[in-house]
Design a protein that fits this description.
about 290 residues, alpha/beta, D-Maltodextrin-Binding Protein, domain 2, Alpha-Beta Plaits, 3 domains, 5-stranded mixed beta sheet, about 30% helix, about 35% strand, globular
C-alpha cells in the first residue's frame, strides 16, 4: 500500500519542499515529470498546482496534499483538514486576498463596486464576498497579470498579496481584505478512514509541524558555574524549561535550551556577562511537543 501525497507546484513549491526536507523527507523534482521522488517507499508524490489540489484530494486521485485555505473555499471541496501550516512563498506568514483599485480611483469601499467589473483568479471567493455585502458586480476570471488590468480592462481586482509591494508597484491601493489564508494539510475522507493511511498522514503531520515550529528557533548550549546559575536562568528564555546537567567539575553545570532566533543577538552578550562560558548556538530541524 502507498500513500498518494500531493505537492503544490508553483509559488508554494520551494517552501514546501524545504519544509519536508527539515521534516526528514527528501523530495527530488525532475522538471520533465510530475511525479517527484521521495525517500520513503510508502509514499508516492504527485505534483499539481495548489489551485487544483483540493479537487484532486476530494475525488480520491490523491490521499492527501498541501494547498491554501483559499483554494479549498474556491473549489468548495469536501476534505479533511489535518493541520494548519502557517508558511507561504516568502516566509512564515499568512497571505491576504485583497480588493484593490487604482490609487486615483473613486472607489473607497465594496459598496462602490455596484455595477462595476472585477478581475480575479478567485471568482467564487469574490462572488461570495460581494454577496455578503449585497453588492452586484461583474466578476471575470483573470488568467494572470491581474494587477495591470485596472483601470483599462476592469474597475477593480481581487488579488493575493503578502507584502503589498506588487500592488504599490502597479499604482494600486487595497480597499478591503477579502480573505486571509494559509497553507493547509488536507486529506481525502476515505483515506482518513483507512487506519494505515491515517497513521501515515498523522506521522507526516507531526513531523511537518515539528519542522515548522523549529523554523524560527535555535538551540543554545553553555557551561555555567553553580554560583552564577541563578543569574543566568533569570535572563534565559526557554521553550519550556532549560535542561541542566552536571559536569565532571562538581562546581559547574551544562545548560541546553531552545529559544526564538530573533532574541539570540541580544541574549548571547547578556549570558556571557552573567557568567556563561562555551556558548554554542545550533540550528534545529524539528521540535516535537
Amino acid at each position: 500500500m502507498k500513500l498518494k501525497l500531493g505537492i503544490p507546484k508553483g509559488s508554494l513549491q520551494e517552501s514546501t519542499i524545504k519544509m519536508f526536507r527539515k521534516a526528514g523527507y527528501s523530495i527530488q523534482i525532475d522538471e520533465r515529470s510530475y511525479y517527484p521522488k521521495i525517500n520513503d517507499d510508502e509514499i508516492e508524490c504527485i505534483m499539481v498546482r495548489a489551485q487544483e489540489m483540493s479537487r484532486y484530494v476530494e475525488n480520491g486521485h490523491m490521499d492527501c496534499g498541501l494547498t491554501g485555505y483559499d483554494w479549498i473555499l474556491e473549489n468548495n471541496s469536501d476534505v479533511v483538514t489535518i493541520a494548519d501550516l502557517i508558511y507561504s512563498k516568502q516566509g512564515l506568514n499568512k497571505i491576504k486576498w485583497v480588493l484593490a483599485v487604482p490609487v486615483e480611483s473613486k472607489i473607497r469601499s465594496v459598496k462602490d463596486l455596484e455595477g462595476k467589473k472585477i478581475a480575479t483568479e478567485a471568482v467564487n471567493l469574490t462572488r461570495q464576498y460581494l454577496k455578503k455585502h449585497n453588492v452586484n458586480a461583474e466578476v471575470e476570471f483573470s488568467w494572470g497579470a491581474t494587477e495591470v488590468k485596472p483601470p483599462e480592462l476592469c474597475d477593480a481586482i481581487v488579488e493575493i498579496t503578502e507584502t503589498g509591494s506588487s500592488l504599490r508597484a502597479n499604482n494600486l491601493r487595497a480597499v478591503d481584505v477579502v480573505l486571509e489564508s494559509n497553507t493547509k494539510f488536507i486529506a481525502n475522507n476515505e483515506a482518513w478512514k483507512n487506519p494505515w493511511k491515517r497513521k501515515k498522514i498523522e506521522n507526516i503531520k507531526m513531523l511537518l509541524l515539528g519542522a515548522l515550529l523549529a523554523e524560527e528557533k535555535v538551540g543554545l548550549m553553555m557551561n555555567v558555574s553553580k554560583k552564577e546559575l541563578p543569574k543566568v536562568l533569570k535572563i534565559l528564555p526557554a521553550l519550556n524549561k532549560p535542561t541542566i546537567s552536571d559536569l565532571s567539575d562538581i562546581n559547574w553545570v551544562a545548560i541546553n535550551t531552545v529559544i526564538d532566533e530573533k532574541f539570540v543577538r541580544e541574549l548571547i552578550p547578556q549570558l556571557k556577562e552573567a557568567g556563561a562560558e562555551g556558548i554554542v548556538e545550533y540550528a534545529l530541524n524539528k521540535i516535537i511537543i
